[in-house]
Protein backbone atom coordinates (compact mmCIF):
# COMPACT_ATOMS: atom_id res chain seq x y z
CA UNK A 1 0.00 0.00 0.00
CA UNK A 2 0.98 3.64 -0.51
CA UNK A 3 0.43 5.87 2.50
CA UNK A 4 -0.21 9.58 2.73
CA UNK A 5 1.45 11.55 5.51
CA UNK A 6 -1.88 13.21 6.31
CA UNK A 7 -4.06 11.44 8.85
CA UNK A 8 -6.02 11.73 12.08
CA UNK A 9 -7.06 9.42 14.91
CA UNK A 10 -8.72 9.94 18.30
CA UNK A 11 -9.43 7.25 20.90
CA UNK A 12 -10.82 7.30 24.46
CA UNK A 13 -10.92 4.93 27.41
CA UNK A 14 -12.77 5.37 30.71
CA UNK A 15 -10.91 4.51 33.91
CA UNK A 16 -13.27 4.82 36.85
CA UNK A 17 -14.56 8.37 36.95
CA UNK A 18 -12.00 9.78 34.51
CA UNK A 19 -11.59 9.55 30.75
CA UNK A 20 -8.19 9.07 29.11
CA UNK A 21 -8.10 10.67 25.66
CA UNK A 22 -5.40 10.23 23.01
CA UNK A 23 -5.30 12.10 19.70
CA UNK A 24 -2.85 11.79 16.79
CA UNK A 25 -2.57 14.24 13.90
CA UNK A 26 -0.06 13.96 11.06
CA UNK A 27 0.88 16.13 8.08
CA UNK A 28 3.67 15.99 5.52
CA UNK A 29 7.32 16.43 6.49
CA UNK A 30 10.65 15.35 5.03
CA UNK A 31 11.39 13.31 8.14
CA UNK A 32 9.56 11.87 11.14
CA UNK A 33 8.94 14.87 13.41
CA UNK A 34 7.14 14.19 16.71
CA UNK A 35 5.51 16.77 18.99
CA UNK A 36 3.74 15.95 22.28
CA UNK A 37 1.02 17.89 24.12
CA UNK A 38 0.47 15.78 27.23
CA UNK A 39 -0.87 16.49 30.71
CA UNK A 40 1.81 16.41 33.37
CA UNK A 41 0.28 13.37 35.10
CA UNK A 42 0.69 11.46 31.80
CA UNK A 43 4.16 12.74 30.92
CA UNK A 44 5.72 9.44 32.01
CA UNK A 45 4.11 7.77 28.96
CA UNK A 46 5.84 9.99 26.38
CA UNK A 47 8.89 7.69 25.80
CA UNK A 48 6.60 4.71 25.28
CA UNK A 49 4.42 6.64 22.80
CA UNK A 50 7.51 7.94 21.01
CA UNK A 51 8.77 4.37 20.53
CA UNK A 52 5.37 3.16 19.30
CA UNK A 53 5.05 5.93 16.73
CA UNK A 54 8.67 5.60 15.58
CA UNK A 55 8.24 1.88 15.01
CA UNK A 56 5.08 2.39 12.92
CA UNK A 57 5.75 5.55 10.86
CA UNK A 58 8.75 6.63 8.81
CA UNK A 59 7.84 10.17 7.72
CA UNK A 60 5.47 12.97 8.70
CA UNK A 61 5.02 15.66 11.31
CA UNK A 62 2.99 13.92 14.03
CA UNK A 63 1.34 15.72 16.93
CA UNK A 64 0.28 13.58 19.89
CA UNK A 65 -2.18 14.95 22.46
CA UNK A 66 -3.14 13.09 25.64
CA UNK A 67 -5.16 14.24 28.64
CA UNK A 68 -7.38 13.13 31.50
CA UNK A 69 -10.90 14.49 31.95
CA UNK A 70 -13.95 13.69 34.00
CA UNK A 71 -15.68 10.74 32.38
CA UNK A 72 -19.04 12.55 32.36
CA UNK A 73 -20.69 15.74 33.51
CA UNK A 74 -23.01 13.81 35.82
CA UNK A 75 -22.72 13.70 39.60
CA UNK A 76 -19.68 11.62 40.56
CA UNK A 77 -19.87 8.81 43.11
CA UNK A 78 -18.98 10.00 46.63
CA UNK A 79 -16.99 7.80 48.98
CA UNK A 80 -16.67 8.75 52.64
CA UNK A 81 -13.29 8.14 54.27
CA UNK A 82 -14.39 6.07 57.27
CA UNK A 83 -11.10 6.46 59.10
CA UNK A 84 -11.12 10.24 58.73
CA UNK A 85 -14.78 10.30 59.82
CA UNK A 86 -13.94 8.40 63.01
CA UNK A 87 -11.04 10.70 63.78
CA UNK A 88 -13.25 13.74 63.22
CA UNK A 89 -15.95 12.29 65.52
CA UNK A 90 -13.37 11.63 68.20
CA UNK A 91 -12.04 15.16 67.90
CA UNK A 92 -15.56 16.56 68.15
CA UNK A 93 -16.22 14.49 71.28
CA UNK A 94 -13.08 15.92 72.92
CA UNK A 95 -14.14 19.46 72.04
CA UNK A 96 -17.67 18.97 73.40
CA UNK A 97 -16.27 17.42 76.60
CA UNK A 98 -14.18 20.52 77.15
CA UNK A 99 -16.73 22.98 75.78
CA UNK A 100 -20.26 21.63 76.37
CA UNK A 101 -21.76 24.77 74.86
CA UNK A 102 -20.05 24.15 71.49
CA UNK A 103 -22.44 23.33 68.64
CA UNK A 104 -21.97 19.93 66.99
CA UNK A 105 -20.71 19.74 63.42
CA UNK A 106 -23.37 19.63 60.69
CA UNK A 107 -23.32 17.03 57.94
CA UNK A 108 -22.32 19.70 55.41
CA UNK A 109 -19.39 20.78 57.57
CA UNK A 110 -18.28 17.19 57.99
CA UNK A 111 -18.41 16.52 54.24
CA UNK A 112 -16.45 19.69 53.50
CA UNK A 113 -13.75 18.72 55.97
CA UNK A 114 -10.47 17.95 54.13
CA UNK A 115 -10.00 14.23 53.65
CA UNK A 116 -13.54 13.14 54.60
CA UNK A 117 -14.56 12.54 50.96
CA UNK A 118 -12.08 10.05 49.59
CA UNK A 119 -10.61 10.99 46.21
CA UNK A 120 -10.22 8.29 43.60
CA UNK A 121 -6.57 7.62 42.82
CA UNK A 122 -5.25 5.99 39.67
CA UNK A 123 -2.12 3.91 39.77
CA UNK A 124 0.62 4.73 37.25
CA UNK A 125 0.67 1.07 36.25
CA UNK A 126 -3.00 1.21 35.26
CA UNK A 127 -2.50 4.46 33.37
CA UNK A 128 0.56 3.06 31.56
CA UNK A 129 -1.28 -0.10 30.56
CA UNK A 130 -4.27 1.88 29.28
CA UNK A 131 -2.05 4.39 27.47
CA UNK A 132 -0.16 1.59 25.70
CA UNK A 133 -3.43 0.02 24.57
CA UNK A 134 -4.80 3.35 23.35
CA UNK A 135 -1.51 4.15 21.62
CA UNK A 136 -1.67 0.97 19.55
CA UNK A 137 -5.34 1.55 18.76
CA UNK A 138 -4.74 5.18 17.72
CA UNK A 139 -1.78 4.23 15.55
CA UNK A 140 -3.88 1.59 13.82
CA UNK A 141 -6.58 4.16 13.07
CA UNK A 142 -3.98 6.70 11.95
CA UNK A 143 -2.42 4.20 9.56
CA UNK A 144 -5.87 3.37 8.17
CA UNK A 145 -6.54 7.07 7.68
CA UNK A 146 -3.20 7.58 5.92
CA UNK A 147 -3.84 4.51 3.77
CA UNK A 148 -7.22 5.84 2.61
CA UNK A 149 -5.69 9.21 1.79
CA UNK A 150 -2.79 7.49 0.04
CA UNK A 151 -5.15 5.52 -2.18
CA UNK A 152 -6.79 8.76 -3.30
CA UNK A 153 -3.40 10.28 -4.09
CA UNK A 154 -2.36 7.23 -6.10
CA UNK A 155 -5.55 7.52 -8.16
CA UNK A 156 -4.82 11.19 -8.82
CA UNK A 157 -1.21 10.45 -9.80
CA UNK A 158 -2.22 7.71 -12.22
CA UNK A 159 -4.71 10.05 -13.85
CA UNK A 160 -1.89 12.58 -14.38
CA UNK A 161 0.37 9.86 -15.78
CA UNK A 162 -2.34 8.98 -18.31
CA UNK A 163 -2.69 12.66 -19.21
CA UNK A 164 1.07 12.99 -19.81
CA UNK A 165 1.15 9.86 -21.98
CA UNK A 166 -1.70 11.27 -24.07
CA UNK A 167 0.29 14.48 -24.62
CA UNK A 168 3.41 12.51 -25.57
CA UNK A 169 1.38 10.56 -28.13
CA UNK A 170 0.25 13.85 -29.66
CA UNK A 171 3.80 15.27 -29.63
CA UNK A 172 5.48 12.29 -31.29
CA UNK A 173 4.32 12.95 -34.90
CA UNK A 174 4.65 16.73 -34.68
CA UNK A 175 8.43 16.90 -35.28
CA UNK A 176 8.46 14.75 -38.44
CA UNK A 177 5.62 16.85 -39.82
CA UNK A 178 7.48 20.05 -38.91
CA UNK A 179 10.66 18.79 -40.62
CA UNK A 180 8.71 17.99 -43.81
CA UNK A 181 7.09 21.43 -43.73
CA UNK A 182 10.53 23.03 -43.30
CA UNK A 183 11.84 21.04 -46.29
CA UNK A 184 8.99 22.29 -48.47
CA UNK A 185 9.55 25.91 -47.43
CA UNK A 186 13.31 25.63 -48.03
CA UNK A 187 12.73 24.12 -51.47
CA UNK A 188 10.30 26.87 -52.42
CA UNK A 189 12.69 29.63 -51.28
CA UNK A 190 15.61 28.18 -53.21
CA UNK A 191 13.51 27.75 -56.33
CA UNK A 192 12.63 31.45 -56.18
CA UNK A 193 16.22 32.53 -55.45
CA UNK A 194 18.18 30.53 -57.97
CA UNK A 195 17.58 29.13 -61.39
CA UNK A 196 18.87 25.68 -60.58
CA UNK A 197 17.78 23.77 -57.48
CA UNK A 198 20.65 22.64 -55.21
CA UNK A 199 19.33 19.35 -53.78
CA UNK A 200 22.44 18.78 -51.62
CA UNK A 201 22.05 22.12 -49.89
CA UNK A 202 18.40 21.39 -49.20
CA UNK A 203 19.26 18.05 -47.65
CA UNK A 204 21.95 19.65 -45.49
CA UNK A 205 19.62 22.37 -44.25
CA UNK A 206 16.80 19.94 -43.58
CA UNK A 207 19.13 17.52 -41.78
CA UNK A 208 20.45 20.32 -39.56
CA UNK A 209 16.93 21.46 -38.77
CA UNK A 210 15.82 17.92 -37.99
CA UNK A 211 18.74 17.44 -35.60
CA UNK A 212 17.92 20.63 -33.70
CA UNK A 213 14.22 19.79 -33.57
CA UNK A 214 14.57 16.10 -32.69
CA UNK A 215 12.80 15.39 -29.37
CA UNK A 216 12.54 11.62 -29.72
CA UNK A 217 15.05 11.12 -26.90
CA UNK A 218 13.12 13.44 -24.57
CA UNK A 219 9.84 11.69 -25.35
CA UNK A 220 11.45 8.30 -24.72
CA UNK A 221 12.85 9.42 -21.38
CA UNK A 222 9.48 10.86 -20.40
CA UNK A 223 7.85 7.50 -21.05
CA UNK A 224 10.63 5.71 -19.17
CA UNK A 225 10.17 7.94 -16.12
CA UNK A 226 6.41 7.39 -16.28
CA UNK A 227 6.99 3.64 -16.35
CA UNK A 228 9.08 3.98 -13.19
CA UNK A 229 6.39 6.10 -11.51
CA UNK A 230 3.82 3.39 -12.16
CA UNK A 231 6.23 0.67 -10.96
CA UNK A 232 6.91 2.54 -7.70
CA UNK A 233 3.20 3.12 -7.09
CA UNK A 234 2.49 -0.55 -7.68
CA UNK A 235 5.30 -1.64 -5.32
CA UNK A 236 3.94 0.58 -2.52
CA UNK A 237 5.62 1.26 0.81
CA UNK A 238 7.59 4.44 1.45
CA UNK A 239 7.58 5.92 -2.04
CA UNK A 240 7.55 9.68 -1.44
CA UNK A 241 11.26 10.43 -1.83
CA UNK A 242 11.65 8.24 -4.91
CA UNK A 243 8.65 9.83 -6.60
CA UNK A 244 9.87 13.31 -5.71
CA UNK A 245 13.13 12.56 -7.57
CA UNK A 246 11.17 11.27 -10.57
CA UNK A 247 9.13 14.48 -10.64
CA UNK A 248 12.38 16.44 -11.00
CA UNK A 249 13.46 14.24 -13.91
CA UNK A 250 10.08 14.56 -15.63
CA UNK A 251 10.20 18.33 -15.28
CA UNK A 252 13.72 18.41 -16.73
CA UNK A 253 12.60 16.54 -19.86
CA UNK A 254 9.50 18.74 -20.23
CA UNK A 255 11.70 21.86 -20.10
CA UNK A 256 14.05 20.45 -22.76
CA UNK A 257 11.05 19.60 -24.92
CA UNK A 258 9.88 23.19 -24.66
CA UNK A 259 13.30 24.62 -25.54
CA UNK A 260 13.46 22.48 -28.69
CA UNK A 261 9.88 23.15 -29.76
CA UNK A 262 9.55 23.88 -33.48
CA UNK A 263 5.85 24.73 -33.41
CA UNK A 264 3.35 26.48 -31.19
CA UNK A 265 1.56 23.16 -30.77
CA UNK A 266 4.68 21.51 -29.34
CA UNK A 267 5.23 24.52 -27.06
CA UNK A 268 1.69 24.16 -25.78
CA UNK A 269 2.23 20.46 -25.11
CA UNK A 270 5.38 21.27 -23.14
CA UNK A 271 3.42 23.73 -21.00
CA UNK A 272 0.66 21.16 -20.44
CA UNK A 273 3.24 18.57 -19.39
CA UNK A 274 4.75 20.92 -16.84
CA UNK A 275 1.29 21.64 -15.41
CA UNK A 276 0.63 17.90 -15.03
CA UNK A 277 4.05 17.33 -13.46
CA UNK A 278 3.60 20.18 -10.99
CA UNK A 279 0.23 18.77 -9.97
CA UNK A 280 1.88 15.39 -9.44
CA UNK A 281 4.71 16.94 -7.45
CA UNK A 282 2.25 18.59 -5.08
CA UNK A 283 0.54 15.23 -4.52
CA UNK A 284 3.84 13.43 -4.04
CA UNK A 285 4.80 15.83 -1.24
CA UNK A 286 2.06 14.23 0.86
CA UNK A 287 3.19 10.63 0.37
CA UNK A 288 5.13 8.78 3.05
What does this structure look like?
- The chain is α+β, with helices and mostly antiparallel strands and 288 residues long.
- The chain folds into three domains: 7-73 and 125-142, Ribosomal Protein S5, domain 2 (2-Layer Sandwich), CATH 3.30.230; 82-115, no CATH class; 147-284, no CATH class.
- Helices cover 62% and strands 14% of the residues.
- Helix 4 runs antiparallel to helix 9 (264-284), helix 7 packs antiparallel against helix 8 (240-259) and helix 8 (240-259) runs antiparallel to helix 9.
- The chain starts with 6 loop residues before the first strand and ends with a helix.
- The mean pLDDT is 84.
Brief digest:
The chain has 288 residues and is an alpha+beta fold. The chain folds into 3 domains: 85 residues, 2-Layer Sandwich (Ribosomal Protein S5, domain 2); 34 residues, no CATH class; 138 residues, no CATH class.
Highlighted features:
288 residues, Ribosomal Protein S5, domain 2, 6 strands, 14% strand
Low-confidence stretches: none
What's the tally of helices? Answer: 9
Strand content: 5-15%
The shape is rod-shaped
Q: Roughly what is the average pLDDT, rounded to an integer? A: 84
Task: Please give the share of residues in helix.
Answer: 55-70%
Calculate Rg over CA atoms. Answer: 37 Å
**Derived structural class:** alpha+beta
Main sheet overview: 4 strands, mixed
- Describe the strand arrangement of the main beta sheet, using strand numbers: 1-2-4-3
What is the number of independent domains?
A: 3
From N to C, what is the helix and strand string? EEEHEEHHEHHHHHH
Instruction: State the end-to-end distance.
Output: 11 Å
* Total beta strands: 6
